[in-house]
Amino acid sequence: MLAAPVDAVPDAPGLIHEPKWDGWRCIAFREPDGVYLQSRAGRNLTTYFPDITRAVRTLPPGVVLDGELIVWERGRTNFALLQRRVTAGRALLRLAHDCPAHYVLFDLLADTGGEVVLGLPLSERRARLEQLLVDAPTQLTLTPQTTDTQQVSDWLVNWTVAAGIEGVVTKRLDSRYDVGRRGWWKFRTRLVTEAIVGGVTGSNRSPLTVLLGRFDRRGRLRYTGRTHPLTDAQREQLGGMLSPLNPLQHRTAAMVHPWPEPLPASWSGQLERPEPLRYVQVEPTVVAEIDADVAFEHGRWRHRVRYARARPDVSVYDVPLLLGEEGSYFGEP
């Protein structure tokens, strides 16, 4: 079951709210002879999470669970450590020992013995899930739920930065589980902020998307993310402000461009790695106002951001520092 994006947290009788965890969605099948972990896209994750399969083995055969795989580091979810499970190779068992994963559970698809419970209301599926987890290992965690809008506000204001959640998922207590249907709602915490234009796809006169950066504490411009495609009006406005950075300009440019071209595939932060990204480097003197969510790792936004407009009134030196190096996430002192 999936969640449709919304611009505000729904508030009506019969609704329940849960934190939206920053991890990998996973369905766990407790089979008679073992455990099978499946990603949202249908990928087999079993071999990458021996610690989770061991924990799920303690549950009765036939059980099918829905939840989110996460890894904690110093009290906050760390998406990069989650990704390392796929590339760890022979170091996987050591990684699982040093940085154990947790499986945050929020639904039950089949109960003990394989009893399918998709048609039961969420409130009853939740009650059964709670009972299943009474004596379960600590790595199997039940996600919090609330009907209190004040609690939801606390999650959005405090948990997004401190714990690393992305927002809130809202569900109907009387809803059945419809596989593949968007019957839930998800609200992502977002903020309006600024970043420096360091490159574009397309051309500098007609940019399609924008590659963004911020300075770190040493004054080096670091790549922080990429925008969604620009509108025609945005392309026209920004294209008239960009200056190309070619080899002959490096000595006279306001700042030397520090990013490789093409942009490495690993910088995208996705599970399925794309090809290296060809782009046009520009002189990093233009500031862009953007709308971004709060999911970031290694100083980069993991999801594409929304480009709003250029800010010729703002100096690149007034843009907040690299994500994680500001006084606070929101760039406040």
Automatic annotation (TrEMBL):
Gene3D superfamilies: DNA ligase/mRNA capping enzyme, Nucleic acid-binding proteins. SUPFAM superfamilies: DNA ligase/mRNA capping enzyme, catalytic domain (SSF56091). Residues 103-220 form the ATP-dependent DNA ligase family profile domain. It catalyses: ATP + (deoxyribonucleotide)n-3'-hydroxyl + 5'-phospho-(deoxyribonucleotide)m = (deoxyribonucleotide)n+m + AMP + diphosphate. The keyword Transmembrane helix does not apply. Belongs to the ATP-dependent DNA ligase family. This is DNA ligase (ATP). It comes from Micromonospora noduli.
